[in-house]
Amino acid sequence: MGWVKNLRDEKVRTTTMQLPQKIAAVAAAATAGLAARDLTQKKHSILRNYPVAGHLRYAMETIRPEIRQYFIEGDGEGRPFDRTTRSMIYQRAKGLGSATAFGTESDMDKFGYETLAHSAFPLDHIDIPFRATIGGPDCKKPYDISRYNISDMSFGALSANAVMAMNKGAALGGFAQSTGEGGLTQYHLRYGGDVIWQLGSGYFSARTKDGHLDRGLFKEKSQIDNVKMITIKISQGAKPGIGGELPASKISAEIAEIRGVPRGQDYISPASHKEFSTPTELIEFIAELRELSGGKPIGFKLCVGNHTDILAICKAILAVGTGPDYIIVDGAEGGTGAAPVEFEDRVGMRLTDGLMAVHNALVGTGLRDKIALGASGKITGGNDIVRRLIQGADITLAARPMMMAAGCIQARVCNTGKCPVGVATQSQWRQRALDVDEKAIRVRNYHDATAKEAENLMAAMGVDHPSKLAPHMLRKVISATETKTYLDLFTWLSDGELLEEPKGVWAEYWKQASADNFEPSTRGTRTRI
């Protein structure tokens, strides 16, 4: 039987020798097929000229952002947030602090670089709580709020786990979370954190079938104890002038039910509201919502487009005799889950300009002591908070920094639903990576550390309350040889100045503004075909 064994062994050797040849043949056939496809397809010119090899270009392009972020970019180069800023957020979130050694790496001679003015006699510490009270003359339930809070981010743009982690973090740290225009959901109420309910033009979670506000539903939900304030969203910095966008990949059955929108297609909210169209109607709508909510603070959020819009609202407030309890100014540098690049890059005022415009408008019309001001847009560190307080804000809010505290790595794929860390996705598999309890602690840690650093900076400046901060305490490099304070660089109106004898460009803005419409100013327009 030896010959049988020899025959079997020979067959095994033959098969073993043929296996690599078969693999090579299959690979060659596949390559030939791919080459044939590349040569005949018409969408990609590179593949028609360089079949097979051209795919390397697309592969490298796909991983380019990751290669650049992790291996090429310097500490101060990344955008929207550089590596130094991201590292600071991560370190604080983990409770590790963010102190560095050997001095600053920033270019302090760079045009536009800003510094705070310290005092020769700094304070040891600040005893006054780092909080503000929101509520004007007509508010029955004013809210004591942290000066640093979670800005507007919707369930849908964020995963349920991310929303819950932030809500629990807010509950642990005593600060507030805004729902974003996606509406009030169970996830915003799960852990008892204070909530700012945002109403966008879609009126999600209090919407009628024809897209108007459901007064009865709003009244019911607005009186939930955890809902502390209600914000009407007029516009946002990253895409002012258009509605919020939710890609089809993120519209789950749950989100479709909450928002009352169809599945299977991108949904873009209306560009403007159906409940009001003039400054006067806006103010009357605010008064109505305040009444329906049982007297809670009602305000609005906008990215400033021009000064006349703000002054038109101020004129409406004076005419109607009531107004918002607060206004949140969102800078053009703010973030979003999805927006056309032209709107992200080229529309709207940056936060510095918009915030000071609203502050001056309220001061000039004698309304500043009745209406609180919030600021949002790339507020990551204690210095950012103090800068915005100097420029006119009472409170600040942050979105993307809070996302990073919850685990965001700035992958910039928020609009695809493929967030690698489970923050900005509706994939159950992806969001399981985000542990609610662990990330809640990190969100709380980051808030507390950043708010504390803002207090420390104020103490170094010799002030124990934000009301004592002044424009001369913030300096900007304006040339290679000169810096100036904000007091010297900008116009600051005096109380009630616009009601008496407005001067300069503000006089023209005031003249153009009307409580009856939001029509753009005609100043400087020319006849065209």
TrEMBL record:
<dbReference type="GO" id="GO:0006537">
    <property type="term" value="P:glutamate biosynthetic process"/>
</dbReference>
<dbReference type="InterPro" id="IPR002932">
    <property type="entry name" value="Glu_synthdom"/>
</dbReference>
<dbReference type="InterPro" id="IPR013785">
    <property type="entry name" value="Aldolase_TIM"/>
</dbReference>
<comment type="similarity">
    <text>Belongs to the glutamate synthase family.</text>
</comment>
<dbReference type="InterPro" id="IPR024188">
    <property type="entry name" value="GltB"/>
</dbReference>
<dbReference type="GO" id="GO:0015930">
    <property type="term" value="F:glutamate synthase activity"/>
</dbReference>
<feature type="domain" description="Glutamate synthase">
    <location>
        <begin position="146"/>
        <end position="463"/>
    </location>
</feature>
<dbReference type="Pfam" id="PF01645">
    <property type="entry name" value="Glu_synthase"/>
</dbReference>
<protein>
    <submittedName>
        <fullName>FMN-binding glutamate synthase family protein</fullName>
    </submittedName>
</protein>
